[in-house]
Recover the amino acids of this structure.
């Protein structure tokens, strides 16, 4: 059985991947409706990540990976015009 920390890491990793995917789709779309829809989904993933990321400076390599993905997602959302 996985520890609660591992389950949390996997959840955040999946959320980060989903957010990055939605933001990249939004950036590549030629249709505003598709861009808006995927930008909103990416923003929701970003907000979820911020809500559930540990507040302390966890040092596990897994957390560093997730922090890097959150930073990338932040950058992509800014490119999409999100006020973050």
């Amino acid at each position: 059985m996985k520890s609660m920390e591992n389950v949390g890491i996997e959840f955040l990793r999946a959320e980060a991947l989903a957010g990055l995917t939605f933001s990249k789709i939004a950036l590549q779309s030629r249709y505003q409706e598709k861009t808006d829809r995927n930008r909103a989904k990416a923003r929701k993933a970003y907000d979820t990540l911020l809500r559930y990321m540990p507040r302390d400076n966890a040092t596990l390599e897994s957390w560093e990976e997730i922090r890097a993905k959150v930073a990338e997602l932040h950058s992509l959302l800014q490119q999409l015009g999100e006020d973050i």
In short: The longest helix spans residues 4-28. The radius of gyration is 14 Å. The chain has three helices and no strands.
